[in-house]
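Obj.: predict assembly geometry.
Materials: sequence records (below).
Method: joint structure prediction, all chains together.
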Amino acid sequence: MAAVDFEALRDDFPNLADGQPPLHYLDSAASTQKPACVIESIRHCYAHEYGPVHRGLYPLAENASENYEAARRTLARFINAGTTDQVVFTRSATEAINLVASGWAATHLQSGDEIWVSQMEHHSNFLPWQRVCNQRDARLRIIPVDDRGRLDLENAPELFGPRSRLIAISQMSNVLGTINPVREVVEHARRHDIPVLVDAAQSVGHMPVDVQELDCDFLVASAHKMCGPTGIGFLYGTSARLRETEPLLLGGGMVDEVGIDHSSWAEIPARFEAGSPNLAGAVGLATAVDYLSTIGLKAIEQRVRDLTDYAYQTLEAFDEVLLYGPETGNERGGILSFNIEGIHPHDVAQVAGEQGVAIRAGHHCCQPLMQRLGVSSTARASLNFYNNEQDISALADVINETVKLFGKR
Amino acid sequence: MTDQSIYRAVLLDHFHNPRNKGDLGDMQIVRRGSNPRCGDEIEIGINCENNTLESVRFRGRGCSICLASASLMTESARGLKLTQARDLIEKMQLWFGDQGGVGPPGMGLAALGSVRQHPARKKCVLLAWQALDEILDEIERHPEIVGA
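Observations (raw structure tokens):
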């Protein structure tokens, strides 16, 4: 692996390079910053190559359709999908999960069946399953989380039991940074023919993700958390599972034949993409994928791990700081949730904002996990490869300042 | 801390040395205000005599803005006639509303003005005031609770 000059890569991000005063962006788990190449590809698409996708027979439209499908091929290669048509563009990871909940789970669940999620899931990988279980008289079961923020699989004995119909877990927790043993879960689930959906919103683009190696049935992610634009995400599904899935949205572009009483759907993946496709979004996503691939996902993963180690040790050195989740090492990605004793996380985030440090504070769309941690909210610093040592020093300054302002006197 | 900081000295003072905070056991009416999204949770209690708020107290947990605002509220509302209290709450809500053109309802509350440019935290400010508003509703519905 050739050494990557990560400090130089900061110049690729206008928001980081232009910043005066400097921006210490530690909120990449919410959304990543965008490199100039992605911004330019979207501009270029709208300015010079824009036309309707899969709807026109003139050169501009044909070119637009080709660019859209080329983006799908790029993405399929990136996650190592077996075939390109296993990749469905959606609006977001959230929409992709809703698609599987409404299109697969709702038609496969029987009364008394179980869907399993973990206690650390984002609401987007929790609420769709809760609703479909309520609608189908099925049970939503929870894989507990241990004190170090890891899946407690030993205390989920019925996870692979006879009523288990689907397991939906995140590959990386958006609160704790925990990297879950998805491969191991899938391996067990396979033996019992239980499909597994992987919420990879925090992992794709941050570490190598290979859907064939994971052997999962479904995997979802959002472009905006991997240096791509907002408004586009994707669903990966095995061909067999996608054939069992009904579309979430009906409308233009997803039909084969429409009659008064009955209609038939187009081929996969078109049947899941009703409405005019998000061409510029797909182009921007493909550009982000190329950008990340050029840096190298292993290099990105290592860079974030090094930064995380440093940040973890920096925060741990404060007596007042309580860190959640696994200790540093292979089990965690670049997400650090913490609280400062006796100080509300909103106060931490506000002081941070005034010092040019962007962190998140709140429940991070993970109220069930907050209940497990026994807190209403946490402060969260999340890292990407474009962060550096100064960002983490700035965070340490924030903690000092916060303790000075609000700490017990 | 800069001049721009929403943590002006007044707010910090009320956070570190909250006024009228503590037990609400002797209060005639207590109302809870909570903001589950961020975990703010406070209770406001009052004693009322001759249509006047004789005492206003609070307890709870939350961010510094929420607690400082509650403390400031108890100071401003104590001694007010019920109609005056209602008027003050209304002015606070207008001041923190979207229309603009309304100033702080009294010098003692001006420190809260620095929060107005942070929309996400307006709820923290208003939590205590909304709880007091609900108390006034309750008194209107059941004046006998306060012996009227």
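Conclusions so far: Chain B has a mean pLDDT of 91.
To do: check interface contacts against the pulldown list.
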